[in-house]
Amino acid sequence: MKITILGAYQTKFGELWDKSLKDLSSEAAFGAVEDAGVLFKDIQTAYFGNKMSPQITGQNHVGSLLAEILGTDIPITRIEAACASGGSAVRQACMAIESGQYETALVLGAEKMTDLAISEISVGLMGAASEQERESGLSFVGLYALMARKYFDKYGAGEKDLAAIAVKNHFHGSLNPKAQFPFVLTIDQVMASSMVADPLKLLDCSPITDGAAGLVLASEKYAKKLGSKKPVIIASKQASDTLSLSKRKDLTSLAGAEKAAGEAYRQAGVEAKDIEFAEVHDCFTIAEAMALEDLGFCKKGEGYIAVGKGKTRLGGERAINLSGGLKACGHPVGATGVKQLVEVYSQMMGRAGKRQTKKNKLALTHNIGGTGGTAVVHIVRSAKCKAQSEKSKKE
Amino acid sequence: MKITILGAYQTKFGELWDKSLKDLSSEAAFGAVEDAGVLFKDIQTAYFGNKMSPQITGQNHVGSLLAEILGTDIPITRIEAACASGGSAVRQACMAIESGQYETALVLGAEKMTDLAISEISVGLMGAASEQERESGLSFVGLYALMARKYFDKYGAGEKDLAAIAVKNHFHGSLNPKAQFPFVLTIDQVMASSMVADPLKLLDCSPITDGAAGLVLASEKYAKKLGSKKPVIIASKQASDTLSLSKRKDLTSLAGAEKAAGEAYRQAGVEAKDIEFAEVHDCFTIAEAMALEDLGFCKKGEGYIAVGKGKTRLGGERAINLSGGLKACGHPVGATGVKQLVEVYSQMMGRAGKRQTKKNKLALTHNIGGTGGTAVVHIVRSAKCKAQSEKSKKE
């Protein structure tokens, strides 16, 4: 696979009381097109990652809403895969281009979450979990707390180990002007924050966020015609797992993420060790520890150790969540998977300002729906990177 | 495009009080796989068209729900495009196969609508319209009534002309054991039914329906390996229009449907006149009159005349909605676009029983979201049909 990222844009993430879903979508869509250096009429199809519009504003059919906002009649398709809606939308756009039907595609991810009371949003978010989980009164933080407890028991990790993940992501977020929470935290502050679902505290959790992100993707042929030296998506894979946590064999690993990552490495012709930086789905701190293991960056049970040693910090061995992650940059659910690729693009284009990594040639994004019922993995290489086997070029 | 329909299945459509979304989805998925003559493990990816699950049961993330039901970890992606969710899901599956990533795909469309009070369902359905339309108290029958009134004014059609469409579709539905309303109607009965939104009466409207439909699609190469003589999708196109009716130039035609159809004809290398039968989106009788014109089967303003002359009836010039259409077969919104292709498959395989058409070699399906904000058109040819230009084979 060779799909060029021609342009990218992220709105400010946060509690944006003066912006609607339409405002955010429009800003991200036109921002991405402008960054791509193409005209809007050059965009041939679009995909829209959005989870909650029907529950929040009663609005289905946001593909057509987007067509109206953008003034276009191209096909626009809404993808919903809970918090993996954005990543899955990127993937569908890649396949639409690979199919040969289109040379360019816009991908938009957007979510307007703060228009509901927090209790209502929590109920809405539980739509990504199973009926049994909803009926038993579980929340998402409760579900991830079950995983954290099991992870602690199995590997000897503790609350401070998870706190270090939040601290690292807030450090990165403090360098990102688009982040919802651009400030640093200390371990003590995380430890002193209110318990939400033991052992996860308030500062282990990603926030409720408004925001949008957009990408313009293009075929190799189209990008070549423009003389593009922009980053290229070389793998896009998705896998499923059970909706219910109770039906899993293991609570300390997401089987879907492992499968999608394995397939993505094969498609790209690279290995985990080759990945220089990554954006992973840290909806809760425990999720990042597991992600590092599921993606093959660390051995099982050693994800939290790598974080503790500073290996995943800017300047470390393999920087994770330079954007600040879901924790500090924010988590507008349908936008998150798209934003991860916007961050990768910014880093590869050398535009990441104070959080710029020098190791910026091969990156991975990891976007999760629910407790792992959907997992989407993308691998991106910069124009300077040669890492891609001959075999994978054919795939 | 050459995507073989290896298998197809439709559940009974109706008010199915003893069946859940899970039951219906499972029956259609396994039914389609069995009909395809493959094993479930041969299915490599899946797409799920569903509109209302989040609003009806609070359940998002139905891709993962389906993975749990089916016991699989393949990627399953939910597509939502209001009442065009099913058709759009078929289209995404076609492109996934065309991308070369997959050789087989399952497409499922399912909706469980009768678990809500009718007033609540009406509110939920309006999620497919614009905010302004919802806030002004319009319903979908109200929106289509505006179109009907304009159509009457412009072309001189009247209520009895629309009634003839319901009568024709109920005649076809009376021959379909899977139909929700398998009985005939007379013009007088339609005319005597309660006025819902002038000039549309109860019997001009499609019903609220539970049901599911499934397809197994395969690449040309895979189908060849099986020695398949099954129908082949030779075009799949989608277009958008404004969400709001008030922003359209014309209320008597759906511009998105015209565009998608035009592109589909070009992709398939066929013309409207070549199409032998079609399943069109008759959510209200007026929609079928407009569809006949948008698809190029009739000149503008003559769709209703063709129906009156019996040209669209079984045995006529070009049979329309042999399944009974949305009107008589039923309209489980996310399933409808998939069911249209199930009907085409059944007709081409000679399995349509009493409603079997002899002119069954080249067909079209037309699936609409909202009042035309999304339109999806597929063209299918039977194994016996030679109609496909050399040019289109390359596309």
Describe this structure in words.
- Two copies of one chain form a homodimer.
- By secondary structure, chain A is α/β, with parallel strands linked by helices.
- Chain A has one domain (3-116, 207-394): Thiolase/Chalcone synthase (Peroxisomal Thiolase, Chain A, domain 1, 3-Layer(aba) Sandwich).
- In chain A, 39% of the residues lie in helices and 17% in strands.
- In chain A, strands 3-2-4-7-1-8-12-11-9-10 form a ten-stranded mixed beta sheet, with helices on both faces. In chain A, strands 5-6 form a two-stranded antiparallel sheet.
- In chain A, β5 and β6 (200-201) form a beta hairpin.
- In chain A, α8 crosses α12.
- Chain A is globular and about 55 Å long.
- The N and C termini of chain A lie close together (6 Å).
- Chains A and B meet through α2, α3, β3, α4 and β8 of A and α2, α3, β3, α4 and β8 of B.
Features:
homodimer; 395 residues; alpha/beta; Peroxisomal Thiolase, Chain A, domain 1; 10-stranded mixed beta sheet; 16 helices; 17% strand; globular
